[in-house]
């Protein structure tokens, strides 16, 4: 299982533009994408804007993004870059 | 007024999801729940209500209003509350938002809906209780 641990840098957290950008990219992936807060809690569907908003990741919090399968490393790199963009 | 006219590409391009937008009356008013359900997320400037069928609708009060950090907004309900459609959730004054140099336009977005899933968009003036769109 591929993973990226990322600290969310945007002032608004993983909401609004960062969340929409993240989900838009995740939806293009052929495999499942999950997002989990690094200190524990539920894994949510990275392709659902509702699930990402519900996860409520604030600026400075760290999440683990997971994906598995062919091409997942590139997708994880892109998603990590989106999540860590200030 | 439709999402395309919202002065924020995140909404106007449908990145958050399909929906519409309301150009609110200027003056003190109350933003209400667009559907019956549970308040899943409540910020002063935005909230998400999730219906019993699991579908969520986002209401965003004005554009770039996260920058106000709650100033000018008063919560009339709490996160986790069950609300009926049309029940007041946040009190605010669109005129004050506009006077502060921000658009008070409110995107109403069907989260995770496919773009073709919404029909029957309202046009022209709407009042509390009017149907904005249908989510099949």
UniProtKB/TrEMBL annotation, chain A:
Cite a single Pfam family from the UniProt record. PTS-HPr
Residue ranges of the TM segments: none
Query: Start and end of every HPr domain?
Result: 1-86
Q: Which GO terms describe its biological process?
A: phosphoenolpyruvate-dependent sugar phosphotransferase system
First-listed, main subcellular location of the protein, grouped into a coarse class: cytoplasm
Top-level lineage group: Bacteria
CDD domains per the record? PTS-HPr_like (cd00367)
Q: Where in the cell is it found?
A: Cytoplasm
GO (cellular component) term, any one: cytoplasm
Q: Which InterPro entries match?
A: HPr, HPr-like, HPr-like_sf, PTS_HPr_His_P_site
Tell me the keywords, alphabetical order.
Cytoplasm, Phosphotransferase system
Q: What does this protein do?
A: General (non sugar-specific) component of the phosphoenolpyruvate-dependent sugar phosphotransferase system (sugar PTS). This major carbohydrate active-transport system catalyzes the phosphorylation of incoming sugar substrates concomitantly with their translocation across the cell membrane. The phosphoryl group from phosphoenolpyruvate (PEP) is transferred to the phosphoryl carrier protein HPr by enzyme I. Phospho-HPr then transfers it to the PTS EIIA domain.
Question: This protein is called what?
Answer: Phosphocarrier protein HPr
Q: Which organism is it from?
A: Nonomuraea fuscirosea
TrEMBL record, chain B:
Q: Which residues form the PTS EIIA type-1 domain?
A: 8-112
Question: Chief localization class?
Answer: cytoplasm
Where does this one sit in the cell? Cytoplasm
- GO CC, any one term: cytoplasm
Superkingdom to which the source organism belongs: Bacteria
- Keyword Protein biosynthesis belongs to the record: no
GO BP of this protein: phosphoenolpyruvate-dependent sugar phosphotransferase system
What are the record keywords, sorted? Kinase, Phosphotransferase system, Sugar transport, Transferase, Transport
Q: Name one GO molecular function term.
A: kinase activity
Check the record and name the InterPro entries matching this protein: Dup_hybrid_motif, PTS_EIIA_1_perm, PTS_EIIA_component
Name the UniProt record assigns to this protein:
PTS system N-acetylglucosamine-specific IIA component
The organism named in the record is: Nonomuraea fuscirosea
């Amino acid at each position: 299982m591929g993973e990226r641990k990322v600290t969310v840098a945007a002032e608004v957290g993983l909401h609004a533009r960062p969340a929409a950008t993240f989900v838009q990219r995740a939806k293009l992936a052929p495999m499942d994408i999950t997002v989990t807060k690094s200190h524990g809690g539920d894994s949510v569907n990275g392709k659902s804007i509702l699930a990402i908003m519900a996860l409520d990741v604030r600026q400075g919090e760290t999440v683990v993004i997971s994906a598995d399968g062919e091409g997942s490393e590139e997708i994880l790199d892109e998603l990590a870059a989106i999540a860590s963009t200030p | 007024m439709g999402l395309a006219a919202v002065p924020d590409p995140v909404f106007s391009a449908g990145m958050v999801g399909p929906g519409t937008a309301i150009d609110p009356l200027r003056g003190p008013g109350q933003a209400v729940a667009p559907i019956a359900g549970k308040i899943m997320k409540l910020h002063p400037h935005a909230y998400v209500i999730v219906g019993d069928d699991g579908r969520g609708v986002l209401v965003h009060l004005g554009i770039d209003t996260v920058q106000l950090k709650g100033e000018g907004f008063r919560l009339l309900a709490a996160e986790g509350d069950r609300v009926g459609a049309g029940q007041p959730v946040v009190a605010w004054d669109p005129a004050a938002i506009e006077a502060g140099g921000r658009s008070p336009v409110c995107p109403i977005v069907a989260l995770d809906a496919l773009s073709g899933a919404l029909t029957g968009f309202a046009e022209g003036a709407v009042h509390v209780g009017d149907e904005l769109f249908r989510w099949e």
